[in-house]
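Memo to structure team: turn this sequence into structure tokens by end of day. - J.P.
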Amino acid sequence: MLRRMDIVIPLFDHFEPLDAIGPYEILGYVPGATVRFVTAEPGLVQDVLGSLPVHVPTAYSEVERCDVLLIPGGGSFQGMVSDPDFLGWVRRIHAGTRFTTSVCTGSLVLGAAGLLEGLTATTHWDAVADLESYGAVYTPERVVRQDRVITSAGVSSGIDMAVRLAALLTDEVTAQAIQLYTEYDPQPPYDTGSVAKAPAEVLARARTLG
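Reply from structure team:
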């Protein structure tokens, strides 16, 4: 009997909902995969918007290995990077993963754990200096793979990353089928989804949202 793939997503208070739920939705359809959330102390974890409490029953310390580690971002990265026990756990888990991944400011957690030194990586556009402070080489690409480490840019890019990860874990036809089943066919009403495209007034307004 084949062992199921174990995909682990740590949630700390003030996590960005789509960072976690977007990839969860995609990876939950990967055949043979189990996606589970973990946290520091089992119980309710609150999202950054304040209206989506999630009950997480498992402490990260209970996990000794997994196939995929996915670190979401949002304000939760601050709690993660300030927890030396958690960073030590990330390093130990990374040693045995097939892929270690991040969404948005989750890459800062990988950086704080020492996993991005000298690697090309991405993050939310407003966290570039923080990412580079950990020795990573920033690129504005939405998804960046460096061997077993995959980083993705802000919030919605986690879905792109998860679809690519689904292909790596299975095959391209399966990944495309998941994309079709979830009808992931982005057609945004405005072409302002990156710093390179956004007018100055839109960028200024966006800086007030975080």
